[in-house]
Design a protein that fits this description.
There is one protein chain. This protein is α/β, with parallel strands linked by helices. Helix content is 37%, strand content 16%. The chain contains eleven helices and seven strands. The protein has helices at residues 6-11, 15-25, 43-53, 68-76, 93-105, 120-128, 147-152, 176-189, 216-219, 228-231, 246-252; strands at 88-92, 111-116, 132-137, 158-164, 192-196, 222-227, 239-243. A seven-stranded mixed sheet has the order 1-7-6-5-4-2-3, sandwiched between helices. It is globular.
């Protein structure tokens, strides 16, 4: 019997899946998976629309970057304009988008900087790409990072930085000033930013969310990961997308140069 790969061994099991299975067997209140109770998915826009498509010709190969109408709708929803043809890629949820982004920009042995605490799948995706995580601790009060510690995490092997704002699990939102500071460090080391913004629709009490794509100093070197799982409360449909500059999209989506 053939052995397993070192990469596969590092991936291990999923703590979130274990919690999901435990919650299904007990009366515990499960708060880990991020399954939103609101907004209530619209039966007309989701279920009925899905049923309406079943009898049609939507069951064969299609453009792997996503249906053109869906990409146009995604681009139209963004604060900073994006080209739906060259900058938007539809993915099977945000997790596939994260993995596709990492696999397109890092090679085995490269380093990826990550703020901690972090979403579990970040580390799994880094290991899947054969890369090495470098951690920068967010500290209380307020879950802030130390700029000196952040700068020290970068080196000649650093290829990517994973941001998560609003952060899972802390809820911390990176300010525009912080994003501009992050951009300066990434520019110095020529590092690509992968910005997980899945919780961007969950911002309350007058707080302001800024996408990496809205910061000029980051927009040219960032891949934004987002999903309809939280904003539309349809996590089971596995609908996500990437927003990236055209040159990056060419690689991420596997297009011919």
């Amino acid at each position: 019997m053939s052995g397993t790969s070192a990469r596969g061994e590092r991936l291990g099991g999923s703590g979130l899946v274990q919690l999901m299975r435990l919650a299904a067997k007990t009366n515990v209140v499960e708060l880990a998976l991020g399954t939103p109770g609101a907004p209530e998915p619209s039966a007309k826009l989701v279920t009925e629309a899905g049923y309406a498509l079943l009898p049609g010709d939507h069951h064969q190969y299609a453009d792997p970057i996503g249906h053109p109408q869906l990409r146009v709708a995604i681009a139209a929803s963004l604060a900073t304009p994006a080209d739906p043809e060259t900058e938007i890629t539809v993915t099977v949820g945000g997790t596939e988008g994260l993995c596709a982004a990492l696999l397109s920009i890092v090679d085995s042995g490269d380093e990826v900087v990550v703020f901690e605490p972090f979403y579990e799948n970040f580390i799994k995706a880094i290991h899947l790409a054969g890369a090495v995580p470098r951690f920068v601790r967010l500290r209380q009060p307020g879950w802030h990072y130390d700029p000196a510690e952040f700068a020290a995490a970068f080196g000649s092997r650093t290829r990517a930085l994973i941001l998560n704002s609003p952060n899972n699990p802390t809820g911390r939102i990176l300010t525009r000033t912080e994003l501009e500071e992050i951009a300066r460090v990434c520019d110095n080391w020529d590092v690509t930013v992968i910005s997980d913004e899945v919780y961007s629709s969950y911002v309350y009490d007058g707080a302001t969310f800024t996408s990496a794509a809205d910061v000029p100093a980051l927009s040219g070197r960032s891949i934004v990961v987002n999903s309809l799982s939280k904003s539309h409360a349809i996590s089971g449909w596995r609908l996500g997308y990437l927003r990236a500059p055209a040159e990056m999209t060419t690689v991420v989506a596997g297009r011919t140069r």
